[in-house]
Amino acid sequence: MEALSESISYGIEIVFTHLRTQTVRLVVISINCKETFRSSFFKMNGYVGNLTSMQEEALKKLKEAVADVHRTSYDDYYYLRWLRAREFDVAKAEAMMRKNLAYRNKIGADTILENYKVPELIDKCYPRGYIGPDKDGCPVRYMPFKNLDLRGFAYSVKKSEILKFLTYIFEKDIKEMEELSKKTGKVIEKHCYILDIDGYTFQQATNKDSISLLNDIVKLYEGHYPERMKTAYFINTPMYFNVVLNLSKPFLSETTLKKFYIYGKDFKKALLNDIDAEILPKFLGGLRTDPDGNPTCESFINFGSLISPENYVLKNSVTSLKEEEGVSCIKVPRLSYRLVNIDVPDVNSTVEWVFETSTNDIAVGYYFQHENGKDLEELLSPERVSSHLVPESGTFICEKPGTYVLKFDNTYSWLSSKKVFYKIKVLPPNAATACDDSFE
Fold first, then answer.
1. Distances (CA, A) of 236 to 159, 181, 271, 294, 303
2. Tag placement on the chain: N or C end, fewer CB within 10 Å?
3. Is the pTM of this model over 0.70?
């Protein structure tokens, strides 16, 4: 047994294997790891009443380091969340905690529940719903992605306003944890999310503006609400979900990723294992309905709505793409299409594109060209987009090198040719910024 103290093998790799409506399988493999990285994963897990002597010492040092900002509400549970988030590195935990305090002071987080009024557009269009506690007493929030119009928000509302709204939502969850702690007589410090991907299109998921805002949301949560996630259930995930998840992985900690559970259509049993049927809405597999019998429970779930382009009040602040340097132009005749080849030299490179049309919409698709130069493998089926209203952008992580193709499709238009202005960029692997403390 002493030999085990020298080196420990552990690890979890999530391999997404969609079998139509079958749950994505989780495959556990072994990865070599030094004992110095054990922290919260072995024996003592870094929670109150379950600490190693090293962790006890780190807790003491962190309290001393931030004594100047200590509040009576900062108990051991509070300090340990910051320590676990930084693997009990006291200096990193202190830096993370101080940045959080600066952010909270800047945004007024301590009084946000009393003083903040949700803007009308956000309140109407941002999908969300609080379901209730799970079997362990942790709050459960439901979020349907179908009408999560992140691009629409990017053109309609300042990013700071969206992040303030989400800070408000996270603070509501923490308040609910405090109430449930009083009710149950035990400390509740984590919450759960049910993230419903049904109806969330590939075009929505890979839009560059959507990805940028989503990653800012992830950084807000990771940087200011560490160790609050108990479980995230991703349900109704499409075949391309692993591609979408990869776009946010650089901003997610390994600890958070291990709390993700990925399901296709076969998710109801898993939810019922953790949430009582009387609390879980009927459309998610439970028994709960609205008082009028509505199984979608719209009395406490806001399913949101797509934002109309007429609300794109920030659109005019965006420079027309055709006025920028390095822009290419292509004319697509009526009843025709044009292909733009993109050479990708390395595995896991990221292709980013942005385009606009001078008049009317156009369909865009994304493909991989096989070595024979003829066969195109469809990665993103052509979808009509309103690129004449706002620039349309997209991002794709390339799992293999080779030639990728953007298809501008105008075959549906009998009368109008389209002039397309576009820019394409290929980023090397790992070009995205890794998860850190940079978000303020």
1. 28, 32, 13, 21, 15
2. N
3. yes
